[in-house]
Amino acid sequence: MTEQDMPQVCVRCHQFKSANLGKLVWDRNRWHTRIFVCYACREKPQVVRLARQGEETPIELEARKALEGLKVKASAEFKIGGFIFDFVILHLRMLIEIDSDTYHRSWKRSKRDSHKTAWAQENFWHLVRIKPPDIAQQVVHAVTRRAQSFR
Question: Dihedrals φ, ψ of 32, to 5°?
Answer without folding.
Answer: -95, 5
